[in-house]
Design goal:
The protein is 72% helix and 0% strand. It is built from 11 helices and no strands. The chain is globular, with a radius of gyration of 21 Å. The protein has 2 domains: 149 residues, no CATH class; 33 residues, no CATH class.
């Protein structure tokens, strides 16, 4: 599930004591949101040109460091060089990514390593004193069991979230559809649903 307390409470009440797994996308994005909040805060002190350019180049902060092009590396180092706090925030993001990659590789074979890596991230965040990331740690601690379950059991909502997103895009672009059955047919054809009896025309 996504990290919704009302939904979690409803599931627990309806099903007793189920094993709840936090979806990876939903707990990973908290770190990226924290980095973006730090960027927006510190760039206010930049020169007007750098402030606008940093905003336009915000995607370089979210990409994997090794996946950046030479030009993107240049922009990243430029703006990290303008703010030590932004550099620390980026380092925390990369540390979180390293832990996540390791946790996926380890899976259910060694939960102790996954937990120790997560605790190391907690310590680094607390040492940094950045309120944006401290709030992230509080959220991760509140959902820690469910987060660790995502690596123990290996379930993810990723494929379903992808289908939902594509369907929403079709819906937004479907201003010309006046009949629901034709919109439905378009969605099914896009997802290449097989084994369904669809009459066209």
């Amino acid at each position: 599930m996504d990290m919704s307390y009302p939904f979690k409470s409803a599931v627990q009440k309806a099903l007793g004591n189920p094993v709840i797994i936090a979806d990876r996308f939903h707990f990973r994005r908290y770190v990226f949101w924290a980095l973006d909040r730090v960027r927006r805060r510190v760039q206010k002190d930049f020169h007007e040109y750098d402030r606008k350019k940093c905003k336009r180049m915000k995607h370089v902060f979210n990409k994997r460091y090794e996946a950046l092009s030479e030009k993107q590396h240049w922009y990243l180092e430029r703006y990290l060089g303008l703010s030590e706090e932004l550099r620390s925030a980026y380092r925390l993001k990369e540390m979180s990514r390293g832990w996540f990659d390791q946790a996926k590789a380890v899976g259910s074979s060694n939960g102790r390593i996954i937990k120790e890596g997560l605790y190391a991230f907690y310590r680094e965040v607390k040492a940094s004193g950045m309120k944006e990331f401290i709030k992230v740690v509080q959220t991760l601690q509140n959902w820690q069991t469910e987060i660790l379950n995502s690596f123990t059991f290996g379930y993810t909502n990723g494929p379903i979230e992808g289908l939902n997103n594509q369907t929403k895009v079709i819906k937004r672009n479907a201003f010309g559809f006046k009949r629901y059955d034709r919109l439905r047919m378009r969605v099914l054809l896009h997802h290449q649903v097989k084994g369904k009896t669809i009459q066209v025309g």
